[in-house]
Specification:
This protein is α+β, with helices and mostly antiparallel strands. The longest helix is centred in the N-terminal third of the chain and has 19 residues, at 49-67. The chain has helices spanning 3-10, 28-44, 49-67, 78-91, 96-108, 112-126, 129-134, 203-208; strands at 172-177, 182-185, 197-202, 212-213. It is globular. A 4-stranded mixed beta sheet has the order 3-1-2-4.
Length: 220
């Protein structure tokens, strides 16, 4: 789900054939095999932050699939996911991805006070344009708008295009201003001041809860 964006946040190559967030592993044995390369990388280098983040994200993804009834295992996978995110934060207090993932996990468990305790630091990191630029998360200036091409109506029955499943960074890591209900891109350097916020790993989850995308330079 987040491997492409994680690559931007961490700026490193793939650690080998490992967990694929676009796949659903039908058995716990298959899932365990998929994360084995990540565990091996961490055993070789306990300070391998990237492998720890990927491992935590793998457990978090499986836990959410279990809660959705998609797989029959993973009821307690939130615990190893939390352990990896907290270990990363201890090693790198400026790791935005780990703070955001941990905040989302705690919210998903209903631990609102624990999540709220992370919010000041998370907001500080998300507004640090210098930090975001270092990890390549600040988007490039948009290209000049182009004139729309004239639409030609085809003859015969309408053709329904296939769903667009391309990865878009703006679909991930969004922040919601609870006072206005507006959704913003988290890595936008022009975020307005937000006193009370909620974070979502995926934009569509926020929309499903009734929040609406903001307009302007930070539109998701």
């Amino acid at each position: 789900m987040l491997l492409v964006l994680i690559g931007c946040l961490l700026g490193a190559g793939s650690p080998g054939q490992a967990f694929d967030p676009a796949s659903v592993y039908p058995t716990e044995a298959a899932f365990t095999a998929s994360v084995a390369p990540l565990r091996a990388a961490i055993e070789r280098n306990p300070r391998d932050v990237r492998s720890r983040f990927l491992l935590g994200d793998a457990y978090l993804s499986a836990w959410r699939l279990y809660r959705a009834g998609v797989i029959s295992y993973g009821a307690t996978y939130d615990r190893p996911a939390e352990a990896q995110f907290r270990a990363i934060i201890r090693m790198d207090p400026n790791h935005l991805g780990a703070h955001l993932a941990l905040y989302t996990l705690l919210q998903s468990r209903g631990e609102w006070e624990a999540a709220e305790a992370l919010l000041p630091r998370l907001l500080s990191l998300s507004r640090d344009v210098g930090l975001l630029a270092q990890v390549g998360a600040v988007p490039r200036p948009p290209s000049p708008p182009q004139a729309p091409r004239p639409q030609v109506r085809p003859e015969g029955p309408a053709v329904v295009p296939p769903p667009d499943v391309r990865f878009r960074p703006e679909d991930y890591f969004v922040i919601v201003d609870l006072a206005t209900g507006l959704i913003y891109r988290l890595n936008c350097p022009h975020l307005p001041r937000i006193e009370r916020a909620a974070f979502f790993l995926i934009k569509w989850e926020a929309i499903a809860q009734g929040y609406r995308p903001a307009t302007g330079p930070c539109a998701p």
